[in-house]
Structure formats: structure tokens, C-alpha cells
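INFO  loader      accepted 1 record
INFO  loader      residues=679
INFO  predictor   begin
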Amino acid sequence: MAHLELRAYQQEVVERALKRENIIIWLPTGGGKTRAAVYVAKRHLETTPRAKVVVLVNKVHLVDQHYNNEFKPHLGHDYTLVAVSGESKEKDFFGPVVKKSDVVICTAQILYNSLTDMEDTKHVEFSDITLLIIDECHHTHKDSAYNKVMACYVEKKLKGEQLLPQILGLTASPGTGGAKILEKAVDHVLQICANLDSAIVSAKNYVSELKQNVPRPVKKFNIVDKRPEDPFGDHLKCMMQMIHEYMNVPPDFKLRECGTQDYEADVVILEQLGVKQNSRVLAQCALHLRQYNDALLINDTLRMMDAYRSLEGFYNNKFTSAIDGTDFFLVGLFQENQVELQKLARDLRYENPKMGELESTLLKQFGPSAESKGILFSKTRKSIHCLNDWVVNNKVLQGAGIKAAILTGAGNGTTYMTQNEQADTIRNFRKGTVNLLISTSVAEEGLDIPECNLVVRYGLLTNEIAQQQASGRARAKDSQYSVVAEKGGREVKRELTNEYLEELTGKAIAKVQDMSFQEFRKKIAELQREAVICRKLLEKRKIEKRSRNTAASVQLLCRNCFKPVASGSDIRLLDNVHFVNVNLDFKKHYKVGGQVMLGKSFEDWEPGRRISCSNCDKEWGFEMKYKEVALLPNLAIKDLALETPEGRKMVKKWKDVPFTVEDFSFEEYCQDHYPDLLD
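INFO  predictor   done
INFO  writer      dumping C-alpha cells
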């Protein structure tokens, strides 16, 4: 068993937890919060009758990471530990697993499901748990799985229930919740304390030891001048102007500046307006303008050729069948300008100066003889793939010994990684076969990544929490945190704002810590009662919204061509996750494409082929094979529009549809579709 000793500042922050108080430990990234939590768990197991420790994480990959790297080495010798994620079979008999184990590490969603599922094989009560550890607990807000778990806890507490677990939250960055003034930042910190029913604790007496063990990196702004000329971007803007004129934007609708996030928000609203008003001209032009705006944003951050390829990929992949004159105009416009755009994108005189500055920043840290490790953060999965391509094909960077790899979040689809791919990439980074991770925000928080000499943030606009988390990755001695940005640009302004907000977070926490015990408890109880009332009101509104229309009175239309393709009464909710169409006639409205690959297997179902509108090729989802019998179209509501008695609507998620969706019954499905087999 690995020896478990704490530094003085860690010992200081766990004191109240050892007295069985509910606390949130606030220590910077690299300060050893998880080690402190293992120590509390060990002492708890040693001193508590029928002890049961549950450790909650908010990302699947953290389940195995905490199990293998922290809890098993220190507790595995004397106690029974189990790691449960959505990909492990134990989730289906979670109740017995909890009863038989001393320590359970799982995602918050699994615990929430088991608290609300009354089946014996899955159900767990709070009274079964004696210590609940919540990692990255600043996520305990709004509709997060953490907050759903803690909402159950708080409701039981307010009803006077005694058998509730002790809470131990861990965070490096509670943030200000968007607040810019101290009073509101204090409110945000108090709300997190109320959600977790905990006081917030930080190092006070041993701050110098903490600073010594967790050094802050040297921060540098690598600023470049705006490129003097941008003929490629100018050409895209001219094409966008032609689309504006063709689509006839409503006179009372003002589009903001092209190539900005504001413009993107405007065209999203325009597309929805087009769907609502049954105007394909408006809807389609808005969709295409979003792609042009995307290309302008890429041109501003990456290479011109990346921007061109993004647009080319859209037209190659999406538009195989034109329905009306709008499609002919939009596709024709791109095809007429394609050669000119390609020529401009190849003209190196006008290349993005930020890329040159990024190259210099990397070369200062890397070299054939330097043993450096770095992370390059960028915003989207598309941008990190482009940056990786640039590094791999850049002879100067290759000559400096840079060995790059991509790191993205786990999920479904070609631009996501599987958990195993993530683990392999981090293993290679640790070994040194990879020395530069090119990553989305997934590497900011939680992942056990070795110390880095260099962290670069490139083309990023994020809040102070993400900035603190990223900065905390540069933990090696004399490490550097670099922001590559344009002079006077939004990234620099945001970075400086975040520095102020980080300072404000510290002041807000100090204010909360200075409150008297009585004042703090009174405020927390007040916030908890308010939260319970708000949740009940929201739930009531959702039920009212869902019962406003009968399922049969709502038609589902293709979001692209507006053709009616199904009734709301055809839709069923399968396993509380999948929304499927059970009407056999639906088959005539779609065609099937390539096989969907999800990179993991499921107990009762497997993915089939992609499905798209037989009229216009708009993708709607995929077929799923359920229990090896039923072939069910699994639909994405964002690709459909709803014709309701109150007019046409769009929703992003199925939970927001204005009718009640019945649960799927396999028996009923078989009776309806294969009656002869059941005689």
C-alpha cells in the first residue's frame, strides 16, 4: 500500500472534514485536492461504523483515473473498491454493488439514476452512503447531474431527514458565476455552498508552503498586429453580401458585423425565423451564411486554406440534391467563386500573422535538445485538427522535435475520441513519445496530465474558471503560460477580464469565510428553500407545457424541406434516452446511408445506418437495432421542426417538445408489428 502523508496546507484544509463537517476544499490545480480527499476517505473508513464512501466525478474518463491513480493505491489493500461508469455493466445492478463495496467511484449521473430508480437492482438511498466526495464541485449548479444529486439531498435535509452522508467537495475554481462586482460574486459563492450544503475551506496558515509546491507560471502575451490586407476574407464578405441581397433580410432585422460570434447568433435566429414563416429562402440562406461566417472565424484564427476547406467540405458533403431555386443559387455562388477563393487561400503574402507568432512561441520552448512538454489549447475540435495538421506539416516545428497529438472529449462521432484513445494519448505524453498536446477544453480540468513547461491559449474566449484550469496545467519549474492574440483583440480583453474575475473569486470566498456561523447557516438555509421552490415551479411549468398539446395534434416536419414526415403520436421514449419512431409507414420518408460507428457496445441495442430525408437528404439520425428484433429510427429533434396548433416551433432537445412522449413498450411494439408471431 502506498504511504499516505499530507503536506501542512493539505492537513489544514481537511481538519473540518475529519470532524465530519460538510466542506468544500478550495485549492489550486496541482495542490493535491484528490490526495486530501483520499486521506479523509481513509480516516472515515477507519473510524465510521458501516462506512460507505461514494466519489462522484463529472466526466467518464475520471472514473478510472481516480480509481487507478489515487484511491486504489492507498485504499485497495484494506478495502473493497469499485469503479462504475456508463460503459461498465455494474451500472445495471448499482444497488447491490454499493452495498457490497466500501468505496464506489462513479459518474454523478449514475448515482442520480439510482436515487430515482426504484428497481431493487439499481436503487440506492442516501442513507446507504456515509461520505459523498464531489470532484470539480463548482459544476454543482443549474441542471447539472451534480446539482440533481444535491437537490435530492437538500430536499431530504429540509424535511428533517437525519441519515444523510457527509459531503466533501473539491474545486480549484468556484468562479464568480458571471458576476463582475463583489456583492454578486459573494452571492454566487454562497449559492454553490448552499447547493453543496457545505462551508468553503482554503489554506490560511500555510499559504507560503502552498505557493512553493504549486508555482504559478510566467504569463506572456504574444501580440501580433492585424494583417494589413485580407483579400480572402474580403472575398468571402462580398459573397455574403450577395446572399443578403438575395434573401431579402426582414427590414426590422439588423445583422451585426460578419466574422463575429454576434453575427453567428443573428443568423441562427434568422434560420429559425425562416422555418417558422415557411420561408426556405430565409432558412437556407441563413444556414449557408453561418458556414461563411465560420470560414471567416477560421481565417481569423488559422490558415486561409483551413477556412477554404471548411467551406468546401460543407458544399461537398451537404448538398447532393437541390430542391428549389434557392439551393441552385447558393451552390452556384460557391462554385462560381471556388477557383478564386482557392487561389487567394494559397497566396502566402496574406497568411494569418497569428500562425507565425504561434510558431515562434513554440520554437522558444522546444528544440532538439530541450526536454519540453506543452499543451496548445484551442476552441473547437475543427480548429485543433487544423492546428495538428499545421504542426505535422511544418518542417521548422518538426525540426525542433515537436511530436504532437490531438486530445478531445470522449463521445460519439468521428471528431471525438474514445476513452481508450484518450488514455493512450496521455500515456504517450507521459512517456515523451508525444510532447505537445493540441487540445480542446477537455485537458483544462480533471485529466491527470504530467507537468508542462508551456501552456498556450490560442483563439480562445472563455471564462475565468477555464483560464485558471488551463494555467494550472503549466506546473513545471519556470513554466510559461502564453496567450497568442491580435493587438486590441477580444482574446486579450477577455484574458485581462478573467484575471480580474479570478481575483474577485478570492475576495468573494474570503467574505463568505468571514461570515459568522449563524449568519452563514441562515443564508444557506434561505437559498436552499428558494431553490426547492424554484425547482418545483419549473417542473410544474414543464408538465403544463407538455400537456398543452396532444401528441397526435403535433406534426414533425423535415427542418430543411418542410415536408411533414411523422406525427408526435408515432414517437416513443426508449430506455429513458432514445426517441424512436414506431410507425412502420415512416420508412417511406427516409433513406439509409452509411453505418454509424460509436466506438462502444450497448446491452440491448446496436447502431444501424444513418437516415436522411428521402426528399432533400437532410440527416435525421440513425436506425437502431433493439433486442435484435426491432429496427427503430432514432431521431434528432434539432433536425426536425414541429407544426403545433399554436404555430411552427423548433427545439434543440426532446425534453422541450410541447407534448408528452409515451414510453416505448417492446411487447406492444411486437404485438403491433408481428401479431402472427405472438398468436
